[in-house]
Amino acid sequence: MSDGVDRHYVLTDKKQNKFIPPKANTVIFGSKKYVELLLHASKVITAFIENNNVFPFPEKEYSRYANQMQFETIYLQHGVLHIDMPWKYSPEKIIADKIVVACDVDYRIFR
After folding, report:
1. Which domain holds residue 83?
2. Which of 56, 66, 81, 99 is in Cβ range 3.0-4.6 Å of 30 for a Cys bridge?
């Protein structure tokens, strides 16, 4: 897209390139470039909600970076959740600022 927004696809390995649009910006999760982008991002859109899928450093280091990260996290919940799992999806556990769901079942669980 040519709308002035700098987008990057985060990959865990180069084999995933075949799933990314041609000429798209890519970055390897955990790389120095990824950390730099994360520290300057305004939005992080993710299909995975766990901290270790967004933050590339150990939990004990979160406080070191906390004041440097100002992004909004948008979770794209994919698939249909069949049960309520408060140990994973409670307000205390979710790091997302916004959640996109695909059906009423998920809406009720996340509401």
Report:
1. 9-110
2. 56
